[in-house]
C-alpha cells in the first residue's frame, strides 16, 4: 500500500512496499528515506522538507495503519471532496483559481457524506445544476500552513458527468475567475500550470475516447 502526501510540489510516500515509481525517488541523493517510524523521525523529516534542496521523502513501514496514525498526529486534518467532471464530448471541466488551473472541490460539512459534499461543491463552484455522480477515483493528500498550524487536507475525488449545454458561473467568492471545458488536445497545456495532486486525479480518472 502506498499513500502519497504532497508538501508543495514535493511528495512524501508512506508505504509498506517499494514500487518501481518509489524506487526512482529512493535513488535520488536529496530523498530522505526513513524505515523506523517514530515521532523523532517524523520531526526530522518535517525539518528536512523545509530545506530548498529537499526532493522527496519515503516512510517505509511494516504497519501502515499505525504509522498513518502517528504521522497524522503532526497535522490538523481537513476532509474535502470534489469532482472530475466530463461532458458528452469527453471534455473535462477545469476552474482557474489563484493563478492555477484546478478541479472543483471543498471542505466536508458536519454530518455530510463525502459523495454529497463532492456534488454540492461542484455545483456551488461551477454553477452546474445537473450532475451525475459516478465512480470514486482516489484520495489525494497535501499539506499547507495556516496561522501557524500544519494542515493536512485529505481530498476524495469522484468522476461525474454533466451536459456541456448547462450555463457555467464561477463562484467568485471562492476566488474562481474562470471555468472552461477542456478538450483532450488542450489538457497538456493546462497541466503545466496546476497542482501535482490534480495531475494525479486527471491521470487516474479521465477516460479518453478510443480513436
Main β-sheet description: 8 strands, mixed
Portion in strands: 35-45%
Report the CATH architecture of the largest domain: Alpha-Beta Complex
**N-to-C series of helices and strands:** EEHEHEHEEEEHEEEHH
Going by helix content, strand content and strand pairing, the class is alpha/beta
The percent range for helix content is 25-40%
Query: Which oligomeric state applies?
Result: single chain
What is the CATH top level name of the largest domain?
A: Alpha Beta
**Rg calculated over all Cα atoms:** 18 Å
CATH topology of the largest domain: Nucleoside Triphosphate Pyrophosphohydrolase
Beta-strand segment tally = 11
Pick out its properties:
alpha/beta, eight-stranded mixed β-sheet
Question: What does the model show?
Answer:
With 211 residues, the protein is α/β, with parallel strands linked by helices. The protein has two domains: 71 residues, no CATH class; 125 residues, Alpha-Beta Complex (Nucleoside Triphosphate Pyrophosphohydrolase). The protein has six helices and eleven strands. An eight-stranded mixed β-sheet has the order 3-4-2-1-9-10-5-8, with helices on both faces. Strands 7-6-11 form a three-stranded antiparallel β-sheet, covered by helices on one side. It is elongated. The model has no long low-confidence stretch (mean pLDDT 93).
Short description:
By secondary structure, this protein is α/β, with parallel strands linked by helices.
Amino acid at each position: 500500500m502506498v499513500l502519497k502526501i504532497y508538501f508543495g510540489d514535493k511528495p512524501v510516500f508512506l508505504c509498506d512496499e517499494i514500487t518501481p515509481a518509489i524506487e526512482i525517488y529512493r535513488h535520488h541523493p536529496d530523498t530522505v528515506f526513513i524505515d523506523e517510524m517514530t515521532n523523532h523521525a517524523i520531526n526530522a523529516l518535517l525539518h528536512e522538507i523545509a530545506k530548498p534542496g529537499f526532493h522527496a521523502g519515503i516512510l517505509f513501514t511494516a504497519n501502515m495503519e499505525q504509522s498513518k496514525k502517528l504521522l497524522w498526529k503532526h497535522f490538523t486534518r481537513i476532509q474535502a471532496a470534489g469532482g472530475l467532471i466530463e461532458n458528452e464530448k469527453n471534455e473535462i471541466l477545469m476552474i482557474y483559481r489563484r493563478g492555477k488551473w484546478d478541479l472543483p472541490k471543498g471542505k466536508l460539512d458536519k454530518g455530510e457524506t463525502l459523495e454529497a459534499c463532492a456534488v454540492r461543491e461542484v455545483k456551488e463552484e461551477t454553477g452546474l445544476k445537473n450532475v451525475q455522480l459516478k465512480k470514486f477515483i482516489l484520495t489525494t493528500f497535501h499539506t499547507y500552513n495556516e496561522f501557524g498550524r500544519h494542515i493536512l487536507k485529505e481530498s476524495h475525488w469522484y468522476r461525474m458527468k454533466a451536459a456541456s449545454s448547462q450555463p457555467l458561473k464561477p463562484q467568485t467568492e471562492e476566488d474562481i475567475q474562470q471555468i472552461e471545458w477542456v478538450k483532450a488536445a488542450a489538457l497538456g497545456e493546462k497541466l503545466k500550470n496546476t497542482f501535482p495532486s490534480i495531475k494525479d486525479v486527471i491521470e487516474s480518472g479521465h477516460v479518453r475516447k478510443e480513436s
